[in-house]
Amino acid sequence: MSEAASPRTVLITGATGGIGGALAIAYAEAGTTLILQGRNTARLAELATACESRGARVQTQVLDLRDRPALANWLAAVSGQQALDLVIVNAGVNTSIGPQAAGERWPDVEELIAVNVLAAMATVDAVLPAMRARRRGQLALVSSLAAYYGLPVTPSYCASKAAIKTYGEAIRGWLAGSGVRVSVVMPGYVESKMCREMPGPKPFLWSPERAARYIRRGLARDQARISFPFPLNVGTWFLSVLPPAVSQRILRLLDYGA
Question: What domains can be seen in the chain, in order of their start residue?
Answer without folding.
Answer: 9-253 (3.40.50.720)
